[in-house]
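Appendix B.2, paired examples.
Example (i):
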Amino acid sequence: MNFSTEYIGKSVLVISNVEKLDSIHAPELKTVFTYINKTGSNKIVFNLEKTKYCDSSGLSAILVANRLCKDTNGSFVLFGLQASVLKMIEIAQLDKVLIICSTKEEALSSLE
């Protein structure tokens, strides 16, 4: 499975199991985020530890999750970003829009 989910209290941890978050995997990720939102969860933590590359379609999927959470008064948090993924986010100036944490614990506590 390319993306797995784990429910932790009222939050949902989404784990990326892909090395490249690109146009091949982004549609599936958007579906995962949309499904989570439709089931009533609006606090999502996204683990990107295994992802070494992210293109514009991957960033688009991340922004979809951020918007879905914000539109329902929830929160969306990223953690475990590899240097190359963080650089892409910074180039797109999304580091000013997204909540980025270093660890899972930090990300989960930021939702409380």
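Example (ii):
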Amino acid sequence: MKKNMNKIMIIDDHPIIHDGLKTLLASEEHLEICSTASSADDALSKLSDGCPDLAIVDLSLGDMDGTYLIPQLKKIQPELKVLVYTMSEEKLFAERTASAGADGYVMKTSPPTTLKEAIRTVLDGGLYFTPETIERIMKKREGQIGTPGTLMDNLSNRELDIFNLIGQGLDSVSISGKLSISKNTVDTHRINIKNKLGLPNGKAVERLAYEVIQKGKVPK
């Protein structure tokens, strides 16, 4: 192993992402992918074996949402850096992942150079979020009230997960299967989302979710 090598674990339930990141980072002489995991359980079991410096984590895992996984990773290895790499809209999830312990957030639609920059920044001890998100993170850490949030802040983590999946075009049955919860539970969350966002019906929830998730238009 080369001196000063930074070891990386990839946690994503799509093997094509594993292969793509291996190819992307192969030319980075100070980076080495030491392990990959396709589920939260797999990642937790492998973490102590690989001793990575950085975990690249997707938010949409089959057995557990990445927001819930991040604190568990940090509990096992407190010094671990965590970079979220996901299709989920940054405006919705970045601050919540930061509160969970993430050090950075990159959307999979970003160019490869952005991901490389984020990896370097996080490994160097910095944060890699939008300036607005970093401002709110720092103010919260300093005990300040912070800047005003968005309407989406009214939703719980689980409700936001479901809102995100609605925006991806999934119905209640598909969401229940993806999150391993009952359809009735999904429907109850959908009602709560409708009420918290002040929307008249389920169709309005679907329209707003599409605007937010597909077009990045987050209402204030």
